[in-house]
Each structure stands twice: as structure tokens, then as C-alpha cells.
Amino acid sequence: MNDTAPEPSGETPFDAVTSARQVMRLALTGSLATLDEAGRPFASLVTTATSFTGEPVLLLSDLAVHTQNLKRDARASLLLVGPGGEAGDPLAGARVSLTGTVSADADPALGRRFLARHPEAEGYAGFKDFAFYRMSVERGHLVAGFGRIVDIPADDLLIDFDEALASTEAGAIRHMNDDHADALQLYATELLDLPAGPWRAVGLDTHGFDMICGDMPARLDFPAPVGDPGSLRSTLAALAKQARATAA
After folding, report:
1. pTM to 2 decimals?
2. Cα separation of 76 and 58, whole Å?
């Protein structure tokens, strides 16, 4: 189903895929719907991160009802809500309902990306009854306002995995946080029009750069996809130069 209205003259054309990906990368929490032993829907609140490609990553306890449900039936839906309801209308922000299957995944990169966004979870992530889970997305349903309701297949929602870039992600994030805190600050304040604060890099992929300041997430999209560490460095340097010029 695609239910889109024409854009008013002078406005940037609505891009459903970009809007949905933005919500998926920015969301820190979501509503997870699983099926109980009687086949009834059961909704619960979870904290979320994303894999390199954009799949949701969750940290779940074996003791939780939703985890017990998933071990019987991995089918699930996850509702993620983007910013936009701060003025009082909770439906003002874009939201994405993802459907697919959720299963445990021991890939260390998933845990690292999750804990970078949720450092408070480090205190219990290593407990025996906790594990990281990844959602294998089949489709998404975006609601981004009047006339902006779109079904999006997973092939459009997710980005390609790049081994060369993914293998250097941890080092690049550490380098940015240790040596380029000033650039992170400029990205947030000058390019994204966000408040100043102790911004940290928490993840990157071929299409953009994820940061967080307290409980405020941010996503800096690259002007063009990057495919190797060299192009990543040059892109980040160019963005920092642009941000400094804006601040001058």
C-alpha cells in the first residue's frame, strides 16, 4: 500500500525510504509484539539499536515473557517512533512498524553497537540470562503524516553490508570519540541544529554516522555512500570543514 499525497510547491519531495531508515536508526526504544502460548499478541517495551545494515538489535532476558514467546515462535512486530510529538501531539512523529523474526545472535558487533547507545545496560548485559537478539526484517509500514503511509520491503529498508567498513567501525568510532570530540560537537550543532553537549559517536555505516548525547540520538547522513575507510575519513573531514565554515 502506498498512500502518498503530492508535495506542496517548494517543499522537498517526500522520501519514504529515507524517512523510515531515519526512524529505525534514531529510535532508542520500541514496542515489541510477540505471540504468547495461546497465539494472542503480547506487547512490551524494549530498548533498541541497529546492526550495520539497519536491522533492530535488542538485549533480552530469558526471564521476560517476550523472550519466552520468541523461543516458541520467532515471529514478531516492532513499532519504532521518531521525534516529532514534542509539541503535544503523540502522533506527529513518523513511525515504522516492522515485521519479521527475532532470534538470538552472538555477533560481537551487535553487542558493541547496542551498548554504545545504551551504556547503562553494561551492568547486566553479561548476566547468564541475557542475550542479544537481531530482528530479521521482512517488511516495514511507515506512517509519516497525512498522505504519507507506505509499505516498504526489507530490501529497500536495509542497506548493504560492507565488510571493509564494518571491520574498521570499532576503531573509527573510538578514534572519533578520543581525538575528535570537537568535530562531533560541530556535526551536532552546525549540521544538525542540535544542542551542544558531550556528543559521542556510537555507530557508522556506508550511509551515515550515529551519535548520542545523554538520551538524545542523532543521525548524520553522508552526502554519498562510503565504501572503504579512506572514503570514510575524507567524508568526515569534509563534513567537519563544512561545519566549521558554518560556525564561523
Report:
1. 0.91
2. 13
